[in-house]
Structures
1.
Amino acid sequence: MINLIRSLGRWGLSAFERLGRGHIFLMHMLAGIPGLFLRFSLVVQQLFSVGVLSLLIILISGLFVGMVLGLQGYNTLVDFGAEESLGVLVSLSLVRELGPVVSALLFAGRAGSALTAEIGLMKSTEQLSGMEMMAVDPIRRIIAPRFLAGLISMPILAAIFSAVGIIGAFLVGHGLLGVDDGAFWSQMQAKTDFYDDIMNGVIKSVVFGFVVTWIALFEGYDATPTSEGVGRATTRTVVHSAFAILGLDFVLTALMFGDE
Amino acid sequence: MMQNKSTEIIVGMFVAVGIAALFMLAMKVSNLGEYADEAGYQVTAEFQNIGGLKVRAPVTMAGVRVGRVADISLDPTSYNAEVTIDMYSQYDNIPLDTAASIYTAGLLGEQYIGLEAGAEEEFLQSGDVIYLTQPALVLEQVIGQFLYSKAEGE
């Protein structure tokens, strides 16, 4: 019994400790960002590996998600004789929800896990401590550029996802199912608001980019420096990012669209 | 160095594609294109009952969209609904005695304002008021009246 309480207490303390470490890490990282504008090539390098390399999965998934939405939406709407509303259905669901959320989940799987593995391996091969020996702050030199790159890439990827998804839905809806293209676009434009829908989607994706990159970098930086530890940290990145994305999505949606 | 340069080019293209996607969402998907048209003029109309009319609802004339509802408020003296309409600037030759009614698109669709042109020589200008209005048809009232007349007939 005592042992149980003791282990529970230890577990709780270590959870708080990790939470505290994570936030101190975040503060260090944010403090390192202003210095990056002097060495922007570091960020560009990371934009390539974080953003550009995630582009393919985002493009393909976006296209297919849009096509499925077009198909499913059509099948439901045609019962009510409202298949012209397909454009509204697709654009609102993509721009408000699926674009930011699905692209953030893919981003966590593609870029987040890669970041964790990379940083974790740097730690386990003692490259990070080597940098510290040379009086180079690894958080400023290694972590901060990756964080900024993640923060920049995520909204771009989400916008591309939504745009490609809408094109996919248009291809299926107009090309395959014969929805009138004028009604498709005009109803979409009448019901989708730039500030309320698209900008809120962009805000969501910025928040997700922030959280996912933070989790990925912290897990890598905090990983046990063994091959098993790095593997476990990578798994945790994906799982925790998914929780954070879906939980935050509910909170953000309630804040943005709750009062309608 | 060469490697570095091509990375920069690809990253630049990536950012450009992102901006293009956002631009497409703004112009093709959302109503941002309409905001550019907003340099039109505003008129107001007073309705007895606006039913389910909402801000941003379309304002049409002969089925063609000529503006949108900008604001809805309650007149404190007459207890009527005061609806402000943003008219598109290219429709600047709408007669002064135009009538406005609230219709429903389809049986369950959203409500919109339909304008019917009058015969006046003068045209509506910014700040003018549309006097001829017809309130929204509230379905419950219509059904109520129908049942009442039915019961009376028996």
2.
Amino acid sequence: MNTQPGIQAALANVTSAGPVLLAILPEATRFSLRINSGNLAAASKALGLSLPTTIGTRAASGTRSALCHGPDEWEILASEDDRADIEAAFAAIYLKAPHSLTDISDREITIVIEGDKAVELLSVGCPINLDRLAVGNGKRTVFDSAQVVIYRDARDSFRMQVWRSFLAHVWGLLNIANCELAAGY
Amino acid sequence: MSAYRVESHGRIKHHQPVSFTFDGETVEGREGDTVASALLANGKHLMGRSFKYHRPRGAIAAGSEEPNALIGTTRSEGRFEPNTRATVQEIYPGLKTESQNSYPSLKYDIGAINDRLYMLFSAGFYYKTFMWPRSFWDKVYEPFIRRAAGLGVSPTVEDPDHYASRYLHCDILIVGAGPAGIAAALAAGKSGAKVLLADEGAEMGGSVLSEPGVNIDGCSAWNWLEARLDELRGMENVTLMTRTTAIGYYHQNMVGLCQKLTDHLTTLPEGAPRERLWRIRANQVILTQGALEKPLVFHENDRPGVMLAGSAQTYLNRYGVLVGRRPVVVTSHDSAWYAAFDLADAGAEVQAIVDLRDKVQSELSDEATKRGIRVLTSHTVTGTSGRLRIKSIRINPLRGSKAGRAETVNCDALLMSGGWTPSLHLFSHTKGTLRWEDDTKAYLPDQKAEACHIAGAGRGLWGIGKALTDGGEAGVAAATAAGFTTIAEAYPVENDREGTGISLRELPTDRSPGKAKAFIDFQNDVTAKDIRLAVSEGMHSIEHVKRYTTNGMATDQGKMSNMNGLNIAADALGKPQTEVGLTTFRPPYTPTTFGAFAGYHKGSHFEVTRKTPIDDWAEENGAAFEPVALWRRAWYFPKPGEDLHAAVARECRATRESLGIFDASTLGKIEVSGPDAVEFMNRMYTNPWTKLGVSRCRYGLLLGEDGYILDDGVIGRLSDDKFHVTTTTGGAARVLNMMEDYLQTEWPDLKVWLTSTTEQWATIALNGPNARNLLEPFVEGQDMSDEAFPHMSVSQCTVAGFPARLFRISFTGELGFEVNVPARYGRALWENLWEAGQQYDVCPYGTETMHVLRAEKGFIIVGQDTDGTVTPDDAGMSWAVGKKKTDFVGMRSLSRPDIAAPGRKQLVGLLTRDSKTVLDEGAQIVADPKQPKPMKMLGHVTSSYWSETLGRSVALAVVQGGRDRMGDSLYVPMPGKDVEVEVTGTVFYDPENARLKL
Amino acid sequence: MLLIHCPYCDETLPEPEFAYAGEAHIDRPADPQQLSDEEWRDFLFIRTNAKGPHYERWRHINGCARFFNAVRDTVSDKFLTTYKAGEARPDLAKLLEGQK
């Protein structure tokens, strides 16, 4: 689990004692890729996976994955040691397929939310109908007033990425709600 | 055993006594009682005093529509709530309740003097009484109104409870679990649709709970109910919520539900919220809210013991309480006859049934006769007596519309019914229209504005049988509309009580109508006479009548009073009701706690508090914080005994003399990247960017299209195609949004992309003569000499082993650097620099010192020295505008006539003639303080500080034609004195910028 | 809280994901310097302020981040349609016909 002093301290006051597992994932590589649709083939080749074109859908290959956020926007996740390789692969296609590949590994913190009450827990802050978020997909949306990206990994397993400065707020709410669930409410 | 408790009746647990207190006195009730039912079981009708006249009042109803019986409830320290309806609050051991609006006691109340003075308090009395003399307003009227205003008293300590909220999406939401709602839920539930059935009561069943004598589908009503609720509980796709009130119906089938979770519990479970606000989004909504009974309007109809007949029936059948042993029933509707029969069968000696109508169905009169009840059709009621509880009523025979000779009949309760009004509040929230139906004498739903269905008494169908059939059909219709298939079962009903009636205005009387206290809005003490007076004084719109009289403005939101008020107003106006119209129902349906609306947003979650990666260090080291946009930022770092000024003076000195360290992580950062990046920058910012070299920085100024300064920041060119843009802390999101807007909608052809990197980077600023000395040993990959890395440079290198974007820039006028490292390393880098910086007495400083240091140099803060009406020239920053550029955002506006005109306010420096005086920020500036008022304002002070470095105060200001006034004296009127100031340039310290070049 | 159809995501989603962005179909002039003061004033400040159907812009700011256009009735708050930025102004008569 995460060993960053800043994050630990921010969360130290909050203990989770509810039925839903809440945990912070260690940082990994995260890029925002912006590229016009005409150059998708080159980008897919550079990344080694076929970039999905329907907003909210994902594709993965090995430890690399890409979530389509918008018509020209993808979020790429990869292992921590893969950063330089991805940068190099995209740098090599830049002249032919201009794009923006921006490192945002540290921008968001990832919270794991897991358990059969996970959807209920998320519903304290998510106005969207989570039934419509299919397993394997992801979506940028809001939790309370914070922008988040939610990945649904299984029916009852989610990852929620939240901008670092909003973490204490979001984490606090999740834990209050988890205690409500623990109390049977 | 109380004389009013009937063991054979009710759904409460008769063998489970529960004690609570009312005004300090112990009251014994039973598990399942409300405060009202328990008090009534003990023969207590007096529960409160009215708002205006302080008249004694009892419960008139048995549900959430109750206008009179408002009480304060206390569970424990801090858990006090005023204005709880005694008819809704369930009792539990230890509950403390108190009456309201009375002093010194409920029985002997001083405020009741208002009742004698009622002629003064007629409609519009606020407007008439408190008009003049004007001098009375502050000293007499306002204190009087403030003392008299308000229901109950406010809690005085913080609410210890927590309040929850959730979103929920369903196919079908059903509001109201009476027979129609349950039938709808059964039909819809069987379709497999996701169904939510909510009811405000503690139990589901609605009118079925008060009608145990009805047979449904071959079994008793209550057995049928239990079986059907079990069936619903067994459906995985159906959720049942009790104690849950639909408070508002909003756009596109969003309905707000407030669920009370713990107010009925003896002990509070750890972690349980008191209430939860549900935001429901339903594909289809079914409204099965039933109908509300209307009071009759006659003289002294507000005496304790006067109650709605249907409510009396509910008290008997649900709570095992006879509200009186010798009641009289007065009615214009059949339903009250059934109440009379139920009470008589439970042992009450019903003194008479008085019906306003000429005749009633023979079955009713036969049933009455069978029970030995005196029947008086074509009679009216003209008054009541009894101080704190009704003792007798005056009954008069009717000859046409005239009341004949009165007869006095003794009684201990008066049960009234003026017919029923469909409960269409939620439907009205949607702007659905209503139509008057003469058969039912009621407004019924007409045109729908949302995907909703209304069934049962809510659309004027009386009786359980009709409600079940109609509810089932609504369930099928809703399920079908939501894409499901189902059928409704038939539930044959025996012994149903349907009934009809008529709708009346004030009852005929043999007394002077001018003296009648015939109440319509009980809580606000509005009488029929008030309505007529309002109309005669020119209030011809029903909305004006409402506001002039306050009819319908009580916490019951007109549930009791609207229809009677409308009938009387229509009569006074000589128009049919349909032409007068209804006032608008607005959410919430019933009073809702602030806690429920606030939800989790209190205490530390009141709003988002954004924190930087270095925030913890600042907290550990005693920083005082200030909010900046959603962030909290270290404001200053006081040492023991230091106040703001002492700490800031020390931090300024330390930074100017040696080294200061500052957390600048909140600065907005945008990565502008792509082949057209430089073209995009040229179009957005006032400055020219084409010739800015790689690894160089420039101060950028961003305008709105109106030509006014919107944002600023230092921008570094990382490569030909990539810029690291910084924005103000508060402007980050706004600027990115604006840039995206231009890019997506005006210049979609540009190959450039924007990414917010505000939170990717932690930013640490080092300022002071020792800044390089500290930093240099940590830097790899960049020659730190002044020649290799001059002022306004940027480098991608490593600092303390962390990948970094290193800027040589200064917002203080000292030699300065800003180190950006990935946020995860922010605190580690800070601590490295902190430790190594001890040799230079490194000083952490906060936003206040930052503000002082930049003001000494005349650097503006957008939003402080600018206010949305300041152009680059106004700010003395024409140098930042590219002279050869042909277009950029806002450029055209700079030649608009009023922006090019002379005499605009310009940013200047101000030095007080008395160097120790620090001007107030925001203070106005005048040329001559002796001129008559109102004085001509020349401008105002935008920034003002004590400068420790200069040993005097400094200020920035915007002044009309300011740059032409250099050296002039102007005046700043401040409390107690007029301060003389000299107009100067904006740079107070090191105008040659020598200190940057160290 | 409204539900809004994002023409890029092709999904109908709750209002907190969106931000209002003013009147639609007001193009920034290609060369502002060529405009008279009056023309520039009109571009800057003059808006329709419609009572009824209104062409307006929204941004799916907490979603795909795209700006798009909508026709919304300012009286009933009902959306008649939404469409992508750059697409032509839809015919109001046809939209109103479709509502019936």
